[in-house]
Each structure stands twice: as structure tokens, then as C-alpha cells.
Amino acid sequence: MSKQKMRHRPTVAIILSILFAGLGQLYNRRYVKGILFIVIEAVFLITFYNFLNIGLWGLITLGEIPMVDHSIFLLIQGLVSVIIIAFAAVLYYFNIIDARKDALRLQRGEPFPSLLESCGNVWDKGFPYVFVTPGLIMLLFVVVLPLLFMVSLAFTDYNLYNSPPRHLLHWVGFKNFKNLVSVPIWQDTFFSVFAWTIVWTIVATTLQIALGLFLAILVNDPRIKFKRFIRTVLILPWAVPAFVTILVFAAMFNDKFGAINRDILSAFGVMIPWMTDPFWTKVALILIQTWLGFPFVFALFTGVLQSISRDWYEAAEMDGATRWQKFRSITLPHVLYATAPLLIMQYAGNFNNFNIIYLFNDGGPAVRGQNAGGTDILISWVYDLTFTTNNYNMAAAISIIIGLIVSGFALYQFRRTRSFKEEGNI
After folding, report:
1. How far apart are CA 149 and CA 171, in angstroms?
2. If DSSP codes are grouped into helix, strand and coil, which group holds residue 156?
3. Element (H, E) at 66
4. Where in this chain does the entry annotate a coiled-coil region (predicted)?
5. Stretch 5-13: mean pLDDT, rounded?
6. Which of 136, 168, 212, 315 has the largest CB neighbor count within 10 A?
7. If phi over 0 gives left and psi between -120 and 50 gives alpha, with beta otherwise, what is residue 67?
8. Which phi and psi (to 5°) does residue 360 adopt?
9. Is the dihedral of CA 7, 10, 16, 17 positive or negative?
10. Whether residue 123 is found in the same domain as residue 76
11. Which residue from 298, 277, 280 is spatially nearest to 207, judged by alpha carbons?
């Protein structure tokens, strides 16, 4: 190995690449690649310097002069700047790694591939990334940017009485989260709505799963005739758009002219305040959700039950097992093993089931001393805070809590299911 090759240091190439993209490649005598990196960084700095400078300044200060600086626009520009910088940092990292690899190759005396060979290698190895990158960029600006914007609002004082451009926003840290558990009106409302959200999620989802499982087992019984007709009828509620069903039920449960009170309960001298009493409104919502949700669970369980071998039940009968023992030891474990992830999604979906709460009674009836309705769940409360009272900061704070709860619950349950643990081993 020549002394010149031994004196070639990868550390110098790395330092030069850190100072300015492409310098490390020039040090490695990879002139075309080095010039290309230099041009890319120069164009990036010339094009985005002012945008990034204003964006980062706006992200930190949220503006300094009312009616001139718009805090929301500055916040969005700052978040876009962060995404652009993150994307540029990834490319810069690959520039450094490339310089280090070329320097090590030169130090070992290995020949460099020609320009055509390099282009061919880049195309072969980078082909998937070329087609993934446009989708990734769109994902960043369509999904990640709105999420970052929402999270950022949770740490500002953005509300109806402090809106740009007349007023400037300010970073307030965790003040909004503290207000949820310390300020009386927010505290009472938050814990009341949160408790009802948990009850709603558990009771409504469990009832629809239990009803779907019961009907699936019943229809799957060999003694039942006309199975196709019965299954078709039971799946019909799923075929009707949910919002149509909810509006129909809202009319049926109406206190004054609804069919349930006027035509059914009136025969027994009973008139239930379905729309004006929070307790009975909650009961009605749970019943409606059970009706809306059981067809999907029924169809899901029906398919799983048909895959269970009859030999297992015959062997259990020969051992003297009762119906309950066969259900507990054969049917239920098999059904839950095959459907656990989808059932978890049912719970997560009902936790954020905005449609039924909004369409049935708009989260009502009103509750004294609270700024949420008697049947509002967290997601419908966020909607009211955003579009009715314009408490954007509190709505963003609650949205973060919702996201953490749903993602944490789903991750925990997925990791505990056998279907997750044994994935790839079946």
C-alpha cells in the first residue's frame, strides 16, 4: 500500500463533509460526486435561507408586533421549516457516511467504480426509495404537519379572546393541561366527560360484542334452519348508513312525538325523558350503538365459528363436556385468538365515536356548571371547544390526551394478544 493511501484519513473526509457537503468527496478525489453535493447544498441554502430564518424566528417568538405578525402563519411556517431541516439533515447524514466510506475504500487501496457503475448501483439499491420518497413527503405535509400544529396549539394561549392577528400568541408551557385538572369549571367538566367516555366505550362496545357473539353462536347451531336468510337479516343494520340509522333513532326517542314513548311506552303509562335527562340519553346512546355495532361483530364471529373443526366438539362430548365447558374451552379461545386485534379496534373506535354523539342529541342535554353536554365524550367535547367556543388551546390539549390514551391502550392490548406474540410462528 502506497504512503499516499496510508496518509489518506477518513476523519478528515468526515470533518470536511460536516463543514460543507461535498468537500469530503473532493478530498477523496470523487470530483463529480463532490461538485454535485456542493451544488445541492448551495441551492438549498440560497432557496430556503430566508424562509427557514423567518420560520425558526416565528416558531420561537410567535411574532412581536400585533396586526403585523400573524402568530398562526408564523407557527405553520416554523413547523414547515422544522420538517425541511429534518429532511435536509437526513441527506446531510448520508453525505457524511458516503464520504467516510469512500475514504476508507481509498485508504485500503480499493478501486472506485466508474460513473456509470455508480449510477447503476444507486439505481439498483435506491429504486424502492425513489418511489417511496414522494409518498413520504406527502405524508409529512398531510399527516405529520397537522399533528405537529395541533400539538403546538396545546402549549399556546390561542382562544376566542386571544386570536391573531389582533393579538399575538404566546407559549404557555403546560398551563392548559394544568387548567384541566385545577380550574373548577375545566376540572369538573373534564373528569365528568372522561368518566362517561370510559363507561361509554366499555359498556357499548362490550354489549355489541356480546350480542354479536351470542347471535353468531345461535345461528351457527346445526339445529337452526334458514341460516342464510337469518344471517342476511342480521347483517342488514350494517348495510344501512350509520348516520341514517342514528337520525331515525333520534326521531324515535324524541320525548314528545317519538314512537317509543308515544306508541310503545304510553301503553304502560310511562314517558321516559330520553332527550332531556342525561341518564336516559346515555342509555339510549348505548342501545343505539349496540344495534349499530353488533352486525359487524356477528359477521366476524360467524366466519371464525365456521372454521372450528367439528371433531373438537365431538371429542369434548365423548369426554363428557357440557355446553358451557365446550364454549369456554373451545369456542371462546378460538374466536378471541382470531379476532382480538379487530375487537381492540372496536373499543378504540367507540372511544372516538363522534358521529352517534353528535347526530343523536349534539352531546346534550346541557349540564349546569359545565361547558360540555351531559352525553359529550372527549372527541365531541373537542369539537364543541373548537367550533363553538373557539377554545383552540384546550381542544388541542384534550386531543393530545385522547391520542395518548387510544394509542397506549391499543399498543398494550396488541402486545398482550397471542396473535401478536405468535406472529410469524404460525
Report:
1. 13
2. strand
3. none
4. none
5. 75
6. 212
7. left
8. -75, -50
9. positive
10. yes
11. 298
Same domain, 121 and 194: no
Phi, psi of 62, rounded to the nearest 5 degrees: 60, 25
Selected residue with higher pLDDT from 276 and 32: 276
Cell representation of residue 174: 403546560
3-state secondary structure of 128: helix
Same domain, residue pair 109 and 192:
no
The reply to whether 161 falls in a domain is no
Closest C-alpha to 357, from 207, 186, 210, 193: 193
For every residue of 54-121, DSSP letters joined together read HHHHHHHHS-SSTTTS-HHHHHHHHHHHHHHHHHHHHHHHHHHHHHHHHHHHHHHTPPPPPHHHHHHH
Domain that holds residue 52: 3-153
Which residue is it, cell 372511544?
351
Closest CA to 301 of 332, 269, 335: 335
Q: What is the mean pLDDT of the chain?
A: 88
CB 32 within 8 A of CB 48: no
Preceding peptide of 222 cis, ω within 30°? no
Contact 181, 82 (CB under 8 A): no
Q: How far apart are CA 27 and CA 7, in angstroms?
A: 12
Q: At a CB cut-off of 8 Å and minimum separation 6, what does 379 contact? A: 351, 352, 353, 354, 357, 402
Number of domains in the chain: 2
Res. 136: pLDDT tops 90: no
Claim to verify: residue 233 and residue 140 sit in the same structural domain: no
* Beta bridge partner(s), residue 366: 373
**Rounded to an integer, what distance in angstroms lies between the CA atom of residue 338 and that of residue 191?**
35
What pLDDT shows up at residue 207?
96
pLDDT of residue 1: 47
264 lies in a domain?
Answer: yes
